[in-house]
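Worked example

This section walks through a single chain of length 217. The input is the sequence exactly as stored; nothing has been trimmed or padded.
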Amino acid sequence: MRELTLKIITCSEVSVGSGEGWGATIDSDIVFDEYGLPYIPARRIKGVLRESGIEVAEMFALSNIDHYFTKKVEILFGERGERDSSPICFGNLYIEDYIVNKSWIQWSIEEYPSLISRDMVLKTFTNIRQQTAIDKDGVAKENSLRTIRVLRRDISFSGVVQVEDGFDIAPICLAVRNLRYMGTSRNRGFGHVCCELCDQSGDRLTDSYLNKEVKDA
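Given that input, the structure is written out below as C-alpha coordinates.
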Protein backbone atom coordinates (compact mmCIF):
# COMPACT_ATOMS: atom_id res chain seq x y z
CA MET A 1 0.00 0.00 0.00
CA ARG A 2 1.17 3.49 -0.81
CA GLU A 3 0.67 5.84 2.13
CA LEU A 4 -0.17 9.51 1.59
CA THR A 5 -1.08 12.36 3.93
CA LEU A 6 -4.20 14.45 3.41
CA LYS A 7 -4.29 17.90 5.01
CA ILE A 8 -7.35 20.15 5.32
CA ILE A 9 -7.39 23.66 6.81
CA THR A 10 -10.64 25.46 7.61
CA CYS A 11 -10.53 28.80 5.77
CA SER A 12 -13.92 29.81 7.13
CA GLU A 13 -16.25 28.40 9.73
CA VAL A 14 -17.12 24.83 8.74
CA SER A 15 -20.03 22.63 9.81
CA VAL A 16 -19.00 18.97 9.53
CA GLY A 17 -22.36 17.77 10.76
CA SER A 18 -22.74 14.65 12.87
CA GLY A 19 -26.41 14.31 11.97
CA GLU A 20 -27.33 14.83 15.61
CA GLY A 21 -28.15 17.72 17.90
CA TRP A 22 -26.91 18.62 21.36
CA GLY A 23 -29.73 18.48 23.85
CA ALA A 24 -32.29 21.24 23.46
CA THR A 25 -29.79 23.98 22.61
CA ILE A 26 -28.08 22.92 19.36
CA ASP A 27 -30.02 21.60 16.37
CA SER A 28 -27.00 20.56 14.28
CA ASP A 29 -23.71 19.55 15.88
CA ILE A 30 -20.25 18.70 14.57
CA VAL A 31 -18.29 15.48 15.04
CA PHE A 32 -15.99 15.28 18.09
CA ASP A 33 -14.49 12.61 20.32
CA GLU A 34 -15.15 11.83 23.98
CA TYR A 35 -12.82 14.62 25.11
CA GLY A 36 -14.27 17.36 22.90
CA LEU A 37 -11.60 17.24 20.18
CA PRO A 38 -13.16 17.66 16.71
CA TYR A 39 -12.30 15.39 13.80
CA ILE A 40 -13.47 14.73 10.25
CA PRO A 41 -14.73 11.16 9.68
CA ALA A 42 -13.11 9.07 6.96
CA ARG A 43 -16.45 8.32 5.32
CA ARG A 44 -17.20 12.03 4.99
CA ILE A 45 -13.79 12.67 3.40
CA LYS A 46 -14.21 9.88 0.87
CA GLY A 47 -17.66 11.16 -0.07
CA VAL A 48 -16.67 14.78 -0.70
CA LEU A 49 -13.53 13.77 -2.60
CA ARG A 50 -15.50 11.37 -4.78
CA GLU A 51 -17.89 14.22 -5.65
CA SER A 52 -14.93 16.50 -6.31
CA GLY A 53 -13.33 13.88 -8.56
CA ILE A 54 -16.54 13.61 -10.58
CA GLU A 55 -16.54 17.41 -10.99
CA VAL A 56 -12.97 17.24 -12.33
CA ALA A 57 -14.00 14.48 -14.75
CA GLU A 58 -16.86 16.65 -16.05
CA MET A 59 -14.52 19.62 -16.53
CA PHE A 60 -12.03 17.42 -18.39
CA ALA A 61 -14.76 16.02 -20.62
CA LEU A 62 -16.01 19.51 -21.53
CA SER A 63 -12.42 20.56 -22.28
CA ASN A 64 -11.61 17.40 -24.27
CA ILE A 65 -8.66 16.71 -21.99
CA ASP A 66 -9.27 13.15 -20.78
CA HIS A 67 -12.37 11.19 -21.77
CA TYR A 68 -11.35 8.29 -19.52
CA PHE A 69 -10.99 10.26 -16.31
CA THR A 70 -14.53 9.39 -15.15
CA LYS A 71 -13.64 5.70 -15.30
CA LYS A 72 -10.43 6.39 -13.39
CA VAL A 73 -12.46 8.03 -10.62
CA GLU A 74 -14.87 5.08 -10.49
CA ILE A 75 -12.01 2.59 -10.32
CA LEU A 76 -10.14 4.42 -7.56
CA PHE A 77 -13.11 5.36 -5.36
CA GLY A 78 -15.17 2.28 -6.21
CA GLU A 79 -18.36 2.08 -8.22
CA ARG A 80 -21.59 2.35 -6.26
CA GLY A 81 -23.20 -1.01 -5.51
CA GLU A 82 -20.02 -3.07 -5.92
CA ARG A 83 -19.20 -5.67 -3.29
CA ASP A 84 -15.44 -5.37 -3.63
CA SER A 85 -13.75 -2.62 -1.67
CA SER A 86 -12.08 0.23 -3.53
CA PRO A 87 -8.28 0.36 -3.80
CA ILE A 88 -8.18 3.52 -1.68
CA CYS A 89 -8.65 3.68 2.08
CA PHE A 90 -9.18 6.86 4.10
CA GLY A 91 -8.51 7.43 7.78
CA ASN A 92 -10.16 10.01 10.01
CA LEU A 93 -8.63 13.49 9.90
CA TYR A 94 -7.51 14.80 13.29
CA ILE A 95 -6.10 18.06 14.60
CA GLU A 96 -2.33 18.47 14.79
CA ASP A 97 -0.65 16.50 17.60
CA TYR A 98 -3.94 14.76 18.30
CA ILE A 99 -2.51 11.85 20.30
CA VAL A 100 -0.46 14.08 22.60
CA ASN A 101 -3.29 16.58 23.09
CA LYS A 102 -5.79 13.82 23.78
CA SER A 103 -3.53 12.28 26.44
CA TRP A 104 -3.06 15.61 28.21
CA ILE A 105 -6.76 16.46 28.07
CA GLN A 106 -7.70 13.05 29.43
CA TRP A 107 -5.27 13.48 32.31
CA SER A 108 -6.47 17.03 33.00
CA ILE A 109 -10.15 16.05 33.07
CA GLU A 110 -9.44 13.17 35.44
CA GLU A 111 -7.19 15.18 37.75
CA TYR A 112 -8.97 18.56 37.64
CA PRO A 113 -12.62 17.94 36.70
CA SER A 114 -13.68 21.28 38.18
CA LEU A 115 -11.26 23.20 35.95
CA ILE A 116 -11.52 21.46 32.57
CA SER A 117 -14.26 19.52 30.84
CA ARG A 118 -15.20 18.19 27.42
CA ASP A 119 -17.43 21.22 26.81
CA MET A 120 -14.56 23.60 27.55
CA VAL A 121 -12.29 21.78 25.10
CA LEU A 122 -15.00 21.80 22.43
CA LYS A 123 -15.57 25.54 22.83
CA THR A 124 -11.86 26.11 22.10
CA PHE A 125 -12.35 24.86 18.53
CA THR A 126 -15.93 25.89 17.77
CA ASN A 127 -18.47 28.72 17.59
CA ILE A 128 -22.25 28.71 17.87
CA ARG A 129 -24.22 30.22 15.01
CA GLN A 130 -27.93 30.70 14.38
CA GLN A 131 -29.83 30.70 11.10
CA THR A 132 -33.41 31.39 10.15
CA ALA A 133 -35.46 31.13 6.99
CA ILE A 134 -36.79 34.33 5.38
CA ASP A 135 -40.10 34.54 3.58
CA LYS A 136 -40.77 36.46 0.34
CA ASP A 137 -41.47 39.64 2.32
CA GLY A 138 -38.06 39.53 4.03
CA VAL A 139 -39.53 38.47 7.37
CA ALA A 140 -38.21 35.54 9.39
CA LYS A 141 -40.45 32.49 9.11
CA GLU A 142 -42.02 31.34 12.31
CA ASN A 143 -40.27 28.43 14.11
CA SER A 144 -37.46 28.39 11.52
CA LEU A 145 -34.61 29.42 13.85
CA ARG A 146 -31.85 26.80 13.95
CA THR A 147 -28.74 26.75 16.10
CA ILE A 148 -25.63 25.04 14.73
CA ARG A 149 -22.13 24.42 16.02
CA VAL A 150 -19.31 25.14 13.57
CA LEU A 151 -15.56 24.68 13.50
CA ARG A 152 -13.56 27.88 13.74
CA ARG A 153 -11.37 29.00 10.86
CA ASP A 154 -7.63 28.19 10.68
CA ILE A 155 -7.90 24.72 12.23
CA SER A 156 -5.60 22.18 10.57
CA PHE A 157 -6.58 18.53 10.19
CA SER A 158 -4.55 15.69 8.74
CA GLY A 159 -4.84 11.95 8.23
CA VAL A 160 -3.59 8.98 6.27
CA VAL A 161 -4.76 7.90 2.82
CA GLN A 162 -3.67 4.46 1.63
CA VAL A 163 -3.75 3.45 -2.03
CA GLU A 164 -2.99 -0.02 -3.34
CA ASP A 165 0.31 -0.26 -5.20
CA GLY A 166 0.06 0.23 -8.94
CA PHE A 167 -3.06 2.39 -9.00
CA ASP A 168 -3.03 5.78 -10.68
CA ILE A 169 -3.41 8.42 -7.95
CA ALA A 170 -4.17 11.27 -10.37
CA PRO A 171 -7.92 11.18 -9.54
CA ILE A 172 -7.34 11.64 -5.81
CA CYS A 173 -4.70 14.33 -6.37
CA LEU A 174 -6.94 16.36 -8.66
CA ALA A 175 -10.00 15.77 -6.47
CA VAL A 176 -8.07 17.21 -3.53
CA ARG A 177 -6.92 20.14 -5.66
CA ASN A 178 -10.52 20.84 -6.71
CA LEU A 179 -12.10 20.57 -3.25
CA ARG A 180 -12.94 24.03 -1.92
CA TYR A 181 -16.09 23.59 0.17
CA MET A 182 -17.44 20.88 2.44
CA GLY A 183 -20.01 20.43 5.19
CA THR A 184 -23.51 21.80 5.60
CA SER A 185 -24.62 25.37 4.83
CA ARG A 186 -22.02 25.71 2.07
CA ASN A 187 -24.28 28.23 0.32
CA ARG A 188 -24.52 30.37 3.45
CA GLY A 189 -20.91 31.36 3.94
CA PHE A 190 -19.67 28.20 5.66
CA GLY A 191 -17.44 25.36 4.55
CA HIS A 192 -14.48 26.98 2.77
CA VAL A 193 -11.41 24.72 3.09
CA CYS A 194 -7.89 24.44 1.68
CA CYS A 195 -6.64 20.93 0.89
CA GLU A 196 -3.31 19.34 0.13
CA LEU A 197 -2.08 15.80 -0.53
CA CYS A 198 1.53 14.90 0.29
CA ASP A 199 3.70 11.82 -0.09
CA GLN A 200 5.78 10.24 2.66
CA SER A 201 8.59 12.72 2.01
CA GLY A 202 6.24 15.65 2.58
CA ASP A 203 6.27 16.68 -1.08
CA ARG A 204 2.98 18.10 -2.37
CA LEU A 205 1.38 15.97 -5.08
CA THR A 206 -1.65 18.02 -6.09
CA ASP A 207 -0.06 20.73 -8.20
CA SER A 208 2.40 18.35 -9.86
CA TYR A 209 -0.40 16.06 -11.05
CA LEU A 210 -2.47 19.01 -12.25
CA ASN A 211 0.42 20.30 -14.33
CA LYS A 212 1.03 16.81 -15.73
CA GLU A 213 -2.60 16.29 -16.81
CA VAL A 214 -2.74 19.72 -18.53
CA LYS A 215 0.62 19.16 -20.21
CA ASP A 216 -0.42 15.76 -21.55
CA ALA A 217 -3.75 17.08 -22.83
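What to look for: The mean pLDDT is 84.
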